């Protein structure tokens, strides 16, 4: 049975599970929707079980699908780590790497990567600090931390730092399946402005959002402001409003289990770049250099 499963099938399945939509998975993987569908059907045939519930607005993992998703992610991550491991792994590396990270990347990007790093470097301690973006910049420049991980699109005068983008995440419309905008394949900002908008304020979300709206000479119809992503998900899922946010933090359901859909926006809006900062003149310690190189390779940069 195992010989019939390919890494490509696992990758396409994982993309569908992550996004909750075959069409969105196809966009992420730069393939046709039929390629995603065929990969999932082949896996279901091989495993003899349904991996997804097919819903009118997308797909949802079955209990067997959820279990298989965890295994698939482990396989894909292990393969990537194994490919890059010979370049920078040292079995006897010890010490501490000091990292400052902001709310969004700490909550939705770094934990899994840190777990993988620890598997390769069990004797390296991670001294992790939860800091806002200005605090990260100051800590890096003052040498209080080795690396900062933040939304690079918000960093002021980024040329002051050594830096590396780790993930470029597009922004899309989040909407409840029954919302009028869900009927449009590519709504514009003008379309979105006609409906109540839920504005995320954490990690300078309000400033970055209003900045690209202002460049289009428009303003969203702000109904609610919140610093909580889970509150925002619930409000969107129950139809109280819509929002435009990054795929990095997208989940196709709220805490209550209500569906959320994503739609590409017709207008060109900036993607969200998350990445590392370090002091230009700093000579990184061996543990810090290992973390820096691990994150670069693990994220495919």
Automatic annotation (TrEMBL):
GO function term, MF aspect, one: DNA binding
UniProt key word Endoplasmic reticulum: no
Source domain of life: Bacteria
InterPro entries linked: LysR_HTH_N, LysR_subst-bd, WH-like_DNA-bd_sf, WH_DNA-bd_sf
GO cellular component: protein-DNA complex
Keywords per UniProt: DNA-binding, Transcription, Transcription regulation
Ranges where the HTH lysR-type domain occurs: 5-62
Similarity comment text for this entry: Belongs to the LysR transcriptional regulatory family.
Protein name stated in the entry: LysR family transcriptional regulator
Naturally occurring in which organism (per UniProt): Trinickia terrae
Taxonomic placement: Bacteria, Pseudomonadati, Pseudomonadota, Betaproteobacteria, Burkholderiales
């Amino acid at each position: 049975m195992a010989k019939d499963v390919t890494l490509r099938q696992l990758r396409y399945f994982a993309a569908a599970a992550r996004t909750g939509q075959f069409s969105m998975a196809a966009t992420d993987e730069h393939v046709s929707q039929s390629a995603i569908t065929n990969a999932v059907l082949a896996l279901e045939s091989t495993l003899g079980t349904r991996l997804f519930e097919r819903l009118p607005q997308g797909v949802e993992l079955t209990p067997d699908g959820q279990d298989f998703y965890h295994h698939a992610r482990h396989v894909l991550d292990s393969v990537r780590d194994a490919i890059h491991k010979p370049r920078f792994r040292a079995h006897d590396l010890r010490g501490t790497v000091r990292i400052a990270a902001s709310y969004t990347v700490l909550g939705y990007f770094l934990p899994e990567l840190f777990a993988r790093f620890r598997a390769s470097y069990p004797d390296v301690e991670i001294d992790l600090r939860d800091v806002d973006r200005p605090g990260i910049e100051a800590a890096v420049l003052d040498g209080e931390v080795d690396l900062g991980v933040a939304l690079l699109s918000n960093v002021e005068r980024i040329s002051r730092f050594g830096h590396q983008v780790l993930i470029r995440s597009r922004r899309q419309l989040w909407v409840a399946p029954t919302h009028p905008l869900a009927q449009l394949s590519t709504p514009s900002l003008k379309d979105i402005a006609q409906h109540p908008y839920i504005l995320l304020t954490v990690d300078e979300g309000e400033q970055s959002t209003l900045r690209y709206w202002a460049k289009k000479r428009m303003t969203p119809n702000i109904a609610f402001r919140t610093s909580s992503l889970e509150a925002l998900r619930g409000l969107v899922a129950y139809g109280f409003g819509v929002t435009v946010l990054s795929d990095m933090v997208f989940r196709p359901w709220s805490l209550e289990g209500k569906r959320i859909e994503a739609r590409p926006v017709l207008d060109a809006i900036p993607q969200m770049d998350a990445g590392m900062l370090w002091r230009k003149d700093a000579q990184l310690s061996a543990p810090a250099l290992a973390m820096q190189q691990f994150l670069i390779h693990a994220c495919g940069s």
